[in-house]
Amino acid sequence: MARILIADDSVVVREYIKQTLERAGHQVIAEATTGYEAYHQYLTHRPDLITMDINMPELNGIETVKLIVKENHAAKIIIVSTYGLKPLVFEAIKAGASDYITKPVDEDKLLGAMANVL
After folding, report:
1. Quick count: other Cβ atoms within 10 Å of Cβ 96?
2. CATH at 84
């Protein structure tokens, strides 16, 4: 069972990811709606894994990944985004993301990415 932080500004996406992860036996320990909130939730809770949207208020997902990875190079982060453009995927991985999946979130892809990352 992994302890997970979900960072997405969409309540619908957060709830879907949360339900998917909890059905698979994982524990969602925190949620965030902005990049700064995600960073602070990471520092507070030190989750095993983070799912991170790219388009978030205040601080985008890639910049948030950079902050988290600067704090902990071993942080496990899966980007979850509507954008599947190769340059953006490359930028996210270069910033320190562990994997990248696109929305709409497919349960099997999310759980598969988690299995690979963890």
Report:
1. 19
2. 3.40.50.2300
Q: Is the pTM of this model over 0.85?
A: yes
Instruction: Answer yes or no: are the C-beta atoms of 100 and 78 closer than 8 Å.
Output: yes
Q: How far apart are alpha carbons 12 and 68 in whole angstroms? A: 24
Number of other residues whose CB lies within 10 A of the CB of residue 75: 20
Under a CB-based contact definition with an 8 Å cutoff, are residues 28 and 47 in contact?
A: no
Kindly state the tokens that stand for 1.
Answer: 């069972």
Q: What is the number of domains present in the chain? A: 1
Instruction: Give the mean model confidence (pLDDT) for residues 36-64.
Output: 96
Cis peptide before 104 (omega within 30 of 0): yes
Contact 39, 56 (CB under 8 A): no
Residue 48 domain boundaries: 3-117
